[in-house]
């Protein structure tokens, strides 16, 4: 609508992401006009309790109508609690929790109803970011690349660079920052690399009860089992030309096979698998990059980071090296994307999701009192 504040200049947008690691919800504010990121605002994190995590985990792989109400309620409650702590937001970008992702098949499913959140928060909420892209034949993921492009401009990059997200799943965005916008021909190439932390977390949880391989300490004590790594790398996913995306549990057989190993060797092999998937992914870059900026929880894992630095021919640094916050970058991305959706700007294109035309994915729900 013409009277909406985002039609008249930059607004403070609040974004929230509940990632595939199932650890909790990140939320962050950015001041943006949907093109540039002008300022970063406050951020916060709300972990899921073990009971909430169990509900989400039990719902993985399920679709609407398949008993996902409890999971949706966990997502909505956690977001309502977290987002209510912020002041001054004019619009909210709510990603929800991906429970299943099958572009080209049943679609993509993010639990959580943005309409409910709009009523609770009294703010317009943009949500369901992925469906439109999938409906138009795209992968529906990754969606952070348009935000990565804005960040590349913000940090003043002049040569090709890449962002790597090491979340539950890994994803890479190659960027030519000299292009005028993210949808320009040759500006971006983005895709999921393969599993990153999710299989490692699942192993560590099963063996030790802990959430993750903190500091890569378990993997550092193990030896990589080359035959298993080679088997992993022969997966047809690595031969696919990007754009391409993955479900969290697409490589379940890798985890099964790793379970036969001692804990340290299994962790070492799964960590090496995450690294190798990125190295394979980098082979798809249109041109070499000047640096690789790493975001997501995996940048805290020194075994993963050292593996990448050893095997890639460019500097590998956490995004903090350029003054960004790698724990909040995806939450910020959905704040930025919310403004783009509200303004009718695209959030994905052929080179980020494979969609045939530029798409502004997402629907906007306004608080009932405002309708
Ligand atoms: N100190 C640490 N040492 C080792 N690994 C860590 C550390 N901190 C975080 N991680 C890993 O990072 C994961 C969290 O990453 P992140 O929050 O980026 O994932 P996500 O947003 O849920 O995933 P996705 O981007 O796939 O949606 C943890 O589950 C853990 O595996
Ligand atoms: C379907 C889905 O939720 N995919 C996530 C997941 O987590 C990482 C990777 O796989 C990426 O494709 C995406 O998230 C980020 C935020 C994205 O869309 O850019």
TrEMBL record:
Its BP terms in the Gene Ontology are: 1,6-anhydro-N-acetyl-beta-muramic acid catabolic process; amino sugar metabolic process; peptidoglycan turnover
Q: Which SUPFAM superfamilies match?
A: Actin-like ATPase domain
Which InterPro entries did the record assign?
Anhydro_N_Ac-Mur_kinase, ATPase_NBD
Sorted alphabetically, the keyword list is:
ATP-binding, Carbohydrate metabolism, Kinase, Nucleotide-binding, Transferase
Q: Where does ATP bind?
A: 19-26
Describe the task this protein carries out: Catalyzes the specific phosphorylation of 1,6-anhydro-N-acetylmuramic acid (anhMurNAc) with the simultaneous cleavage of the 1,6-anhydro ring, generating MurNAc-6-P. Is required for the utilization of anhMurNAc either imported from the medium or derived from its own cell wall murein, and thus plays a role in cell wall recycling.
Q: Does the keyword Kinase apply?
A: yes
For this protein, the Enzyme Commission number is: 2.7.1.170
Protein name from the UniProt record: Anhydro-N-acetylmuramic acid kinase
Catalysed reaction equations from the record = 1,6-anhydro-N-acetyl-beta-muramate + ATP + H2O = N-acetyl-D-muramate 6-phosphate + ADP + H(+)
Q: What is this enzyme's class at the first EC digit?
A: transferase
Q: Name one Pfam family in it.
A: AnmK
Q: Where does this protein come from, organism-wise? A: Pseudogemmobacter humi
The entry assigns this protein to a family as follows: Belongs to the anhydro-N-acetylmuramic acid kinase family.
What pathway is this protein a component of? Cell wall biogenesis; peptidoglycan recycling; Amino-sugar metabolism; 1,6-anhydro-N-acetylmuramate degradation
């Amino acid at each position: 609508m013409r009277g909406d504040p985002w039609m008249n200049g930059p607004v403070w947008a609040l974004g929230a992401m509940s990632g595939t690691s199932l650890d909790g919800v990140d939320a962050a504010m950015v001041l943006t006009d949907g093109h540039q990121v002008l300022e970063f605002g406050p951020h916060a994190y709300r972990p899921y309790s073990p009971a909430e995590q169990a509900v989400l985990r039990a719902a993985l792989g399920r679709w609407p109508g398949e008993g996902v109400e409890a999971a949706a309620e966990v997502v909505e409650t956690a977001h309502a609690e977290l987002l209510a702590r912020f002041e001054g937001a004019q619009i909210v970008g709510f990603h929800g929790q991906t429970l299943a992702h099958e572009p080209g098949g049943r679609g993509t499913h993010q639990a959580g109803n943005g309409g409910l959140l709009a009523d609770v928060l009294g703010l317009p909420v943009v949500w369901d970011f992925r469906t439109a892209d999938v409906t138009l034949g795209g992968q529906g993921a990754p969606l952070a690349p348009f935000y990565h492009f804005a960040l590349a401009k913000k940090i003043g990059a002049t040569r090709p660079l890449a962002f790597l997200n090491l979340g539950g799943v890994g994803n890479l965005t190659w960027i030519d920052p000299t292009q005028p916008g993210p949808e320009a021909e040759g500006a971006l190439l983005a895709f999921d690399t393969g599993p990153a932390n999710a299989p490692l977390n699942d192993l560590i949880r099963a063996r030790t009860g802990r959430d993750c391989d903190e500091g890569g300490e378990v993997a550092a004590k193990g030896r990589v089992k080359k035959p298993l790594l080679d088997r992993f790398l022969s997966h047809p996913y690595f031969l696919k030309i990007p754009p391409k995306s993955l479900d969290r549990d697409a490589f379940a057989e890798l985890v099964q096979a790793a379970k036969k190993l001692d804990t340290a060797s299994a962790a070492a092999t799964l960590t090496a698998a995450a690294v190798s998937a990125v190295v394979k992914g980098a082979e798809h870059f249109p041109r070499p990059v000047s640096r690789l900026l790493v975001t997501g929880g995996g940048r805290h894992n020194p075994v993963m980071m050292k593996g990448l630095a050893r095997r890639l021919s460019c500097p590998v640094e956490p995004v903090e090296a350029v003054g960004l916050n790698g724990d909040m970058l995806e939450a910020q991305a959905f704040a930025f994307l919310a403004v783009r959706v509200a303004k009718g700007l695209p959030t994905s294109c052929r080179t980020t999701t494979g969609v045939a035309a530029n798409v502004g994915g997402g629907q906007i729900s306004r608080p009932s009192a405002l309708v």
